């Protein structure tokens, strides 16, 4: 078992190091794209294979211990990893989707100067993420947590020569840091609480932490505050209110990065943390906060997504919104449903992002062709930095710019897309299927996971607290919005007629197989992935129920790693359990139907409004006029960025400029320079002694002789 | 004749020599003053030799005189070399070693 876990954890870091070192010191290595990419892909595919082996041969949870990392007084942390249902499922998602994205990147990043750097960082990310999901203790998890944050920074700012990308990377890292600080505080409290009560050596490992005696320590306010702090940490990593602002900016990174890190894996770390510590969270009394944060984030992000023109921004806000759903599920104690949605979301969101990357890739080719033909001003290279008089803005207005927006051609802007289905059929179909999945159309994956979330919220509202019904309504509205904005994105991109200049002659084309194969696989998973979590009522009609529920929560008399607020198996742990079946089967079926209807309503509304793509951005303009009061603030993310800029960013910069800069200049520099000046003046003064005139020196001798004689004679 | 008289004369001559070294601007005069100092010392040595009947003092005088002669020769050679370069014998202007 030790070897198998090593085979999962070590290949990514080894190959990352290899690619990194070779690429850095041996320029010839950087050109071997297939070798580089192939090694990197193998470094993720091998762990995937091993994980599948462990998955299908799984019997009982195991912990493998390697060596001690830290030891000081009461603290002792080992590098130990846990193989159980939850970590195996997460590892499968990470390595599986990760492998597909590695394959995709081989095609997408072709020709880029930093090809080797990209794969080194990507493998490093996989290593950190695996550390996160396989960790047996919170410090090792935190190691992975920080590692993925670092890799996120490195990859968002991958094209670092453009300052905007570096700024976005900084934003991601700094905002994450706030969450990390809260996470650290939570760990400190946990450590102190346990060691004070139990004594002995503690390493914040899950085996000890989740044992009933230890959990009892966190029953009151301690558990509440620990959970709140962990939640803040999770909102940083998983982009919830108030720490979500980094994710839309993170779209500055290459699209495979957006797909892997900011859709499928890193952003689910917060959910994983809550699921792993579910027995603690369940008893903390802070569940309502989690649910409220999730619901509010979901609906807020959905409103913003409708207004966006950049296809990646739509997907970014969509991710924030869907993560909100997952937090909502966690907030009603249905942690396994959150993980189920993590899985289905990984499938369709990765597919959507990779599809958008395929589109962007093609639109870049279109852009180059148009520049070549001289129809748009060159964005890069000679001629692109003309004098202000020939700037883009003046050219655009004077020459009736062929583009409907200011500035250079944007390969990501949907206003210059349209009708791409004819040119990129595979991308279109996979994107379309994933759109239907995320909109929640049965029997695709999104329907089952989203419906399960809404059902659990409904059930919790009925049994635990009526206030949750409000969150259920919020969830329903968000579902409609989700269907609308995703369908809008699909229609504006793939349907209707092309809206870029010279569209009769300049055509995009389908992407290479390295990019389309992952799209097809992911779309397939988005179609069938939901069957892993069929609603319990399906058992009434002879279909299997929820496999994932049995896997994560437990079945028979075997308890899984993930707690559940309303499951009889966890009745002794959950304070919300009040007997079985709070909601009748009829209502369950009705809710299933409602979910389907909601999806159809959303999709239908968008299809009708955009006349299946025939009406493009004009429809948006009309919507802006009609819904102006709501559309404008939504398109500016409800002022979150402006608020943070005006307060924290400006505050820090101004504070630094007014307080620290003068201190640095006057005290620090003044001190050092002052000392140097002092020495210089002293030396200058002493130099006066050396006149060069011999008689002065003779005088000195005489004075000395007189002094000595006087001393001898009179002392 | 008191020993004191000879020693006083010697001291006065020595002092005049010191002042000449310190205060005169002409290099040749400085050398002259140095010779004056040396001769003052010679006088002291001879006076003591006569007073104590010890001939060692007079032997030392021979040493001093020969050293003075050698030193004068070398010194004047340096002065000539300096003069060839700077065309001055003013001590105040010979300050190439100025810090």
Structure description:
- By secondary structure, chain A is mostly helical.
- In chain A, 67% of the residues lie in helices and 3% in strands.
- The longest helix of chain A has 48 residues.
- The mean pLDDT of chain A is 89.
- By secondary structure, chain B is mostly helical.
- The chains are: A mainly alpha (715), B mainly alpha (99).
- Chains A and B meet through α27 of A and α1 of B.
- Chain B: It catalyses: a quinone + NADH + 5 H(+)(in) = a quinol + NAD(+) + 4 H(+)(out).
- Chain B: Its main location: membrane.
- Chain B: Pfam families: Oxidored_q2.
- Chain B: It is found in: Cell membrane; Membrane.
The domain tally of chain B reads 1
Strand content of chain A: under 5%
Number of extended strands of chain A: 4
Order of helices and strands of chain B: HHH
Which chain pair has the greatest contact?
A-B, 12 and 13 residues
State the secondary-structure class of chain B: mainly alpha
Mean pLDDT of chain A: 89
Global shape of chain A: globular
Shape of chain B: elongated
Low-confidence stretches of chain A: none
Structural class of chain A: mainly alpha
Q: Round the mean pLDDT of chain B to the nearest integer and report it.
A: 92
In percent terms, what proportion of residues of chain B is strand?
A: under 5%
Radius of gyration of chain A equals 31 Å
Tally the helices of chain A. Answer: 27
Which architecture of chain B per CATH? Orthogonal Bundle
Q: How far apart are the first and last residues' alpha carbons of chain A, in Å? A: 92 Å
What's this, in brief?
The complex is a heterodimer of chains A (715) and B (99). In chain A, 67% of the residues lie in helices and 3% in strands.
């Amino acid at each position: 078992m030790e070897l198998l876990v090593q085979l999962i954890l070590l290949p990514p870091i080894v190959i990352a190091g290899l690619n990194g070192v070779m690429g850095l010191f041996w320029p010839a290595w950087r050109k071997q794209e297939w070798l580089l990419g192939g090694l990197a892909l193998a470094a993720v595919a091998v762990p995937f294979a091993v994980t599948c082996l462990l998955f299908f041969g799984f019997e009982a949870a195991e912990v493998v211990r390697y060596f001690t990392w830290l030891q000081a007084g009461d603290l002792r942390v080992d590098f130990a990893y846990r193989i159980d249902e939850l970590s195996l499922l997460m590892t499968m998602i990470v390595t599986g989707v990760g492998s597909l994205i590695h394959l995709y990147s081989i095609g997408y990043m072709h020709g880029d100067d930093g090809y080797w750097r990209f794969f080194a960082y990507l493998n490093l990310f996989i290593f950190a993420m695996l550390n996160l999901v396989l960790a047996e203790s919170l410090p090792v998890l935190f190691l992975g947590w920080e590692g993925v944050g670092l890799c996120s920074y490195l990859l968002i700012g991958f094209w670092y020569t453009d300052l905007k990308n570096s700024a976005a990377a900084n934003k991601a890292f700094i905002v994450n840091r706030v969450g990390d600080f809260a996470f650290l505080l939570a760990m400190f409290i946990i450590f102190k609480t346990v060691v004070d009560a139990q004594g002995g050596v503690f390493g914040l490992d899950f085996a000890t932490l989740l044992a009933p005696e230890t959990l009892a320590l966190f029953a009151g306010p301690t558990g509440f505050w620990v959970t709140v702090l962990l939640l803040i940490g999770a909102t940083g990593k998983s982009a919830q209110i108030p720490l979500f602002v980094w994710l839309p900016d993170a779209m500055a990174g290459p699209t495979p990065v957006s797909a892997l890190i900011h859709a499928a894996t890193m952003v689910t770390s917060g959910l994983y943390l809550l699921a792993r510590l579910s027995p603690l969270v369940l008893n903390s009394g802070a569940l309502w906060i989690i649910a409220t944060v999730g619901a509010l984030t979901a609906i807020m992000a959905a409103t913003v997504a409708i207004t966006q023109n950049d296809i990646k921004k739509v997907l970014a806000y969509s991710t924030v919104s869907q993560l909100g759903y997952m937090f909502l599920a966690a907030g009603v104690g249905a942690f396994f449903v959150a993980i189920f949605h993590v899985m289905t979301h990984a499938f369709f969101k990765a597919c959507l992002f990779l599809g958008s990357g395929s589109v962007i890739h093609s639109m870049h080719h279109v852009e180059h062709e148009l520049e070549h033909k001289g129809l748009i001003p060159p964005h890069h290279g000679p001629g692109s930095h003309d004098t202000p008089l020939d700037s883009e803005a003046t050219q655009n207005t004077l020459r009736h710019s062929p583009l409907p927006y200011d500035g250079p051609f944007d390969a990501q802007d949907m206003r210059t897309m349209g009708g791409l289905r004819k040119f990129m059929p595979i991308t279109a179909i996979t994107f379309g299927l994933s759109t239907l999945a995320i909109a929640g159309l049965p029997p695709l994956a999104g329907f089952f996971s989203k419906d399960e979330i809404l059902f659990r919220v409904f059930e919790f509202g009925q049994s635990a607290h009526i206030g949750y019904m409000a969150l259920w309504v919020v969830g329903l509205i968000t579902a409609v919005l989700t269907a609308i904005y995703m369908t809008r994105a699909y229609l504006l991109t793939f349907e209707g007629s092309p809206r870029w200049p010279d569209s009769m002659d300049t055509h995009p084309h389908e992407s290479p197989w390295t990019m389309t194969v992952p799209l097809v696989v992911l779309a397939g998973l988005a179609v069938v992935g939901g069957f892993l979590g069929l609603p319990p009522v399906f058992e009434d009609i002879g279909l299997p129920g929820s496999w994932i529920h049995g896997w994560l929560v437990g079945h028979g008399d075997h308890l899984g790693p993930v707690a559940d607020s309303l499951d009889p198996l966890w009745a002794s742990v959950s304070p919300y359990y009040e007997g079985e079946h709070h909601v009748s089967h009829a209502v369950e079926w009705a809710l299933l139907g409602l979910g389907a209807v909601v999806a159809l309503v959303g999709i239908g509304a968008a299809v009708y409004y955009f006349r299946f793509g025939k009406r493009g951005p004009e429809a948006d303009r009309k919507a802006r006029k009609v819904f102006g009061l709501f559309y404008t603030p939504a398109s500016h993310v409800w002022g979150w960025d402006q608020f943070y800029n005006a307060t924290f960013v400006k505050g820090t910069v101004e504070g630094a400029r007014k307080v620290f800069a003068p201190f640095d200049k006057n005290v620090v520099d003044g001190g050092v320079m002052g000392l140097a000046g002092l020495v210089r003046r002293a030396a200058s003064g002493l130099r006066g002694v050396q006149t060069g005139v011999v008689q002065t020196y003779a005088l000195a001798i005489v004075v000395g002789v007189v002094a000595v004689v006087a001393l001898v004679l009179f002392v | 004749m008191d020993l004191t008289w000879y020693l006083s004369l010697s001291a006065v001559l020595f002092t005049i020599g010191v002042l000449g070294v310190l205060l005169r601007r002409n290099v040749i005069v400085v050398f002259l003053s140095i010779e004056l100092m040396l001769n003052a010392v010679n006088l002291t040595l001879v006076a003591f030799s006569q007073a104590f009947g010890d001939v060692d003092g007079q032997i030392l005088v021979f040493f001093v005189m020969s050293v003075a002669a050698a030193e004068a020769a070398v010194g004047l050679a340096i002065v000539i070399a300096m003069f060839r370069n700077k065309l001055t014998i003013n001590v105040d202007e010979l300050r190439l070693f100025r810090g």
